[in-house]
Amino acid sequence: MRYTNLLLTLTLTSDFYLYADDAKLFSFIKTMEYSATLQKDLDSLTQWMEIWLLRLNIGKCKAISYSRRPELNTNYSISGVTVENIEYMKDLGVTFDNKLKFDKHINNKINAAYQMLGIVKRNLSPNIINH
């Protein structure tokens, strides 16, 4: 049974995305009240998981804020444990940073291409390279 489908029955103010066994809870934070609402939704989600006897790996939970207003960046917690704030994250193969720049993503792709080029060059016979 997939519990993630049951998340759809949970009433939250914040939006969320489900993909396989992952869930992303998010909200557009305009004021600190919106931040408090997001924390309440995290608490509701935690309570829902306890009812269904599900455990959450809090170590895998991360928070990222896309903002030019650092005063709105707040700390969130799950079951009393502060969720780690990060500056970038990889989601479905794309690396996003907190300024929505793709420098890290581009550099990762360039490095992967160079690694692949090195593998190809090492495994081609010298006769093919010289012709």
Count of extended strands: 8
Name the beta content range: 15-25%
Mean pLDDT: 86
Oligomer: single chain
Descriptive report:
With 131 residues, the chain is an alpha+beta fold. It folds into 2 domains: 1-86; 91-131. The protein contains 4 helices and 8 strands; from the N terminus they run αββαββββββαα. Strand 1 and strand 2 (22-26) form a beta hairpin. The mean pLDDT is 86.
Characteristic terms for this protein:
single chain; 131 residues; alpha+beta; two-stranded parallel sheet; 4 helices; 20% strand
What's the quick description here?
This protein is α+β, with helices and mostly antiparallel strands and 131 residues long. It is built from four helices and eight strands, in the order H-E-E-H-E-E-E-E-E-E-H-H.
SSE topology:
Blueprint: H1 3-6, E1 15-19, E2 22-26, H2 32-51, E3 62-63, E4 77-78, E5 81-82, E6 84-85, E7 88-91, E8 94-97, H3 103-123, H4 126-130
Parallel strand pairs: 3-6
Antiparallel strand pairs: 1-2, 4-5, 7-8
